[in-house]
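Small ribosomal subunit biogenesis GTPase RsgA
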Amino acid sequence: MPEGKIVKALSGFYYVADNGRIIQCRGRGVFRKRKVSPLVGDFVEYQAENDLEGYILAIEERKNELVRPPIANVDQAILVFSAVRPDFSTILLDRFLVLIESKQIEPLICITKMDLLSKEEENTVKRYADQYRSFGYTVVLTSSERLVTLEELRSYLHGKTSVFAGQSGVGKSSLLNALKPELELKTDDISNSLGRGKHTTRHVELINVEEGLVADTPGFSSLELTEIEAEDLSQYFPEMAELSQSCKFRGCLHINEPKCAVKDAVEKEEVPSYRYEHYLQFMDEIKERKPRY
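Predicted structure tokens:
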């Protein structure tokens, strides 16, 4: 049975890429009965008489899936944050990072509009960038006029399935257009009154960029931490995950427990206090969540 990867879903059709060919397929009724929908990014088995009349017969197990954009088997998320307009937000970045880490997706942080900063503001953002690098994250800085590190960004896309995510109005569509001009994604200026971009979401499609695949729909599911358990949260803060090994109690939540290596490191300023504050805030959210049955 031939196998391929769904690269587009539109109006009940799934477009399966297989060795340079694109086969238009429908899903079998069996998926509906099992309440499983094929997703863009799925590896599938299919049968087809020709390139326009195929059927998806089986979906291989997914390593992860996102709700918006609806896509499976993502290797990395390029988290696009602007240095200014809207201002760089560490709490929003940490929320994205926690969600991405919980899906076993590799994050890459891209900070745009660096050229719009004063020298002092630039130094502040660069200090944050260095801190995130020290936690083990890759951080790329770009300017709005000339995407100075576009070549560096291209190298990270090679051979991977990537999604772009981040706050509205930070330049996700501009970056995608710069990487692949024929995309012609709509980019609207930020509405100054709202401080938000006005990007219109379309169907999801994986496009070839730099011998990798990129989802052409910037976006991400709701930013609520609905699927994360309290005892797992610190695993999604790499610097805390490492320190957790040295806590006196197994399952330490790093809040009130004695001889906690994380709290100790925060006191010694080895872990930035803003990261720990965000951790506590997310922990409160998780604990206040209604139990799921």
